[in-house]
What we know:
- This protein is α+β, with helices and mostly antiparallel strands.
- Helices cover 24% and strands 26% of the residues.
- It is built from 7 helices and 16 strands.
- It has helices at residues 7-13, 19-27, 118-125, 145-153, 186-193, 224-234, 237-243, and strands spanning 5-6, 31-33, 36-37, 43-44, 51-53, 56-57, 66-71, 99-100, 108-115, 133-139, 156-157, 160-161, 166-171, 174-179, 198-206, 219-221.
- The strands form 4 sheets. Strands 7, 8, 9, 10, 13, 14, 15 and 16 form an 8-stranded mixed β-sheet that branches.
- Helix 1 (7-13) crosses helix 2.
- The longest helix has 11 residues, at 224-234.
Amino acid sequence: MDEGERLQKTLARAGFGSRRSCEILITEGRVTIDGRVAELGNRVKTDENIICVDGTLAPTAQSTVYYLLNKPDGVVTTASDPQGRATVLDLVESPVRVFPVGRLDMNTEGLLILTNDGRLAHLLTHPSSGIAKEYLARVEGDPSPAAIRRLREGVELDDGMTSPAQVSRVSEGLLRIVIHEGRNRQVRRMCTAVGHDVTRLVRTRIGPLQDATLTPGSSRQLSLGEVRKLMEAVGMTDEIASTMPS
């Protein structure tokens, strides 16, 4: 019976340093297997287990897959849920285990990437990447020009001032907001800070990716061109040349 290989060997092969360095990562509690904190001696199968280091998917899979999901309201963005709620993984049929890139809170709808490409996932969510994320926000009331200007220039939240955002009024009570940060519930908190609570929030674009034809709850694989654009957006030029067909 194939019991898999030792976790530290898998991590070392994925580029996390020597086996000894990887053992330290494990003993420090920085590695998880399928959401559980790993221990020395654990064995893994890269085509079955989701391995994360510091919360980011490790690039250990044999082959990479990329999906775009239109997440509906009421679905949680996690690999599993102890309360038994529907998760985004329930909505994507994949031959290998995948992981959501970033988060949408349970009541936020819209586009979400799922993949087993750990490096791309890490770069897409890292603050330095500055990947644009576009939302349509239905809010209470109709924001004044002054409120919209505050959103554009930055508003003070409990975790600091937000960076400048692109904000436009689509119609009464409906805003289009583009941010380059990834703070928890950021768009909702920004709108509340200027006096207009969000009643519905939909993410319509992630960097170069958008798809107005993808219905809520549906998913599809990204095209090679779309994957190339994502890699270009985060500076993965070597991977474009070496792993993607021309």
